[in-house]
Amino acid sequence: MAGSSKTYSGKEVAVHNSRESCWIIVHGKVYDVTDFLDDHPGGSRIILKYAGKDATAEYDPIHPPDAITTNLKPEKHLGSVDLTTVEKVEVKITDEERARQERIAARPPLSEILNLHDFEAIAKYTMAEKAWAYYSSAADDEITNRENHAAFHRIWFRPRILKDVTKVDWSTTILGQKSSMPVYITATALGKLGHPDGELNLTRAAAKHDIIQMIPTLASCSFDEIMDAAAPGQVQFFQLYVNKDREITKRIVQHAEKRGIKGLFITVDAPQLGRREKDMRQKFEAEDPSEVSKADQGGVDRSQGAARAISSFIDPGLNWSDMAWFRSITNMPLILKGVQCWEDALEAYDIGLSGVVLSNHGGRQLDFARSGLEVLVEVTTKLKEKRGLSFPNEKFQLFIDGGVRRATDVLKAVALGATAVGIGRPFLYAYSAYGPEGIDQALQILHDEFEMNMRLLGACSMKEVIPEMVDASNIHLHIVSVPSDNLYESNYERLQGVRLREIKNKL
């Protein structure tokens, strides 16, 4: 970083506490953000709140570690600060926070958490409102978000009986790497919103339970911090948002390969962010109305909440011709994350990629995109017809994510041809609600569910979980009567429309 080597005192920084001259401290470094106020996707109010002060505690959970150094010009990196001279920011406990702490104290013991739905139920009431809004939000009317889960209800089992299921084995291999179950931890951004250790909770739990973590581009922890926390020999994948600056992308990819990443998952469903309105409403409520008015005059879109604040670098120009370039800069297996139709899966196969994730970004991008499970049925059918492929297939692997809450969901996907299934939000909810013990319990619950359901299904290994064990004839019917999932529906928080601002009684 090209900045000054000068060390400031807390008093020197503190005088720059206005819109006309705004300095902040992050991780012991001083930055002049005056010219950035009107460009900050999160609005100016939150920056001005920490003008002349240490903003690290507010910055950390909602920014990747290098966000400030990437977005500010080098001359705005002013130097270091003597932290012993910096006045501590007084943290005022609001009534809302006090109530949240009371709800945390009222959590049931972890032994009473019986399934992944339960973690979500507790997280909903114990997470900070901003964090819950970011994790749970989805695009537009959140139809796809709910369909991702509902799709599994249209698949029914056809169990086999009188099989010796004394021993059942639900381990598998993913891109040639061993995994204790056909599940991987898929990439999700901003892990520190839910817990101070962020993604490191997932890294440690993945090592303990011998599954694979996909490290996100937009993690709260740095890539190297996550890699350094891994156990010896631990397998990890990397999810890549492609930067408009290809040199930056090349550096990230080659560094990941050098550090031992075993698979590169290139996100292809986010040329522009979807509208996550729960997250957006948090943004509006946090902003000063007068500042919003000023910002509107400048034509800067700050409507996207936390999501917009961290993703402006993503290249909307990414296209098929770029895949040859990726193959020229790395030997890692290349997987497209976010494929939503058989034609694109076929194209990925034909150009020699290692697989695709059939995914709609957890329902956070295009509303009314179909579920990964439904697309899986389409892809396996068409690729068999067009190229004679059967699945699961070692040379071209299919993955899905979105809506998974039970081991039975995973078994349905495997029966229909998936190599493995990605789980994201439930693991975030697990550690947000109960810390590292929560994610440990979540994975143990899945292990227990796999053991029981494979016995009941009549399958001793993943190779015996075959298409004939499921009835998928209703998967393409989007209006079909199935029993309600009360646990899922009780956790789902209905979208709220715009409301009048609170009117204070003048009397």
What is the third-level CATH name, the topology of the largest domain? TIM Barrel
**Largest sheet descriptor:** 8 strands, parallel, barrel
Low-confidence stretches: 286-300
Number of strands: 16
Q: Name the structural class.
A: alpha/beta
CATH class placement of the largest domain: Alpha Beta
EC number: 1.1.2.3
Catalytic activity: (S)-lactate + 2 Fe(III)-[cytochrome c] = 2 Fe(II)-[cytochrome c] + pyruvate + 2 H(+)
Enzyme class: oxidoreductase
Protein name: L-lactate dehydrogenase (cytochrome)
Describe the fold and architecture:
The protein has 507 residues and is an alpha/beta fold. It has two domains: 2-85, Roll (Flavocytochrome B2, Chain A, domain 1); 118-276 and 306-471, TIM Barrel, CATH 3.20.20.70. The protein contains 21 helices and 16 strands. The strands form four sheets. It has an eight-stranded parallel barrel, surrounded by seven helices. A four-stranded mixed beta sheet has the order 1-4-3-2. A two-stranded antiparallel sheet has the order 5-16. Helix 9 (200-209) runs parallel beside helix 20 and helix 16 (342-350) crosses helix 17 (372-387). The model is unreliable at 286-300 (pLDDT under 50). It is found in: Mitochondrion intermembrane space. Homotetramer.
Task: Pick out its properties.
507 residues, alpha/beta, Flavocytochrome B2, Chain A, domain 1, TIM Barrel, 8-stranded parallel barrel, 4-stranded mixed beta sheet, 21 helices, 16 strands
Write the layout of secondary structure elements.
Layout: E1 7-8, H1 10-14, E2 23-26, E3 29-32, H2 45-49, H3 56-59, H4 67-71, E4 77-81, H5 95-105, H6 116-126, H7 129-136, H8 143-150, E5 156-157, E6 172-174, E7 177-179, E8 183-185, H9 200-209, E9 212-215, H10 223-229, E10 236-240, H11 246-258, E11 264-267, H12 277-286, H13 289-298, H14 305-309, H15 322-329, E12 334-339, H16 342-350, E13 355-358, H17 372-387, E14 397-401, H18 407-415, E15 420-423, H19 425-434, H20 436-457, E16 470-471, H21 486-491
Parallel strand pairs: 1-4, 8-9, 8-15, 9-10, 10-11, 11-12, 12-13, 13-14, 14-15
Antiparallel strand pairs: 2-3, 3-4, 5-16, 6-7
GO molecular function: heme binding; L-lactate dehydrogenase (cytochrome) activity; metal ion binding
Cofactor: FMN; heme b
Protein name: L-lactate dehydrogenase (cytochrome)
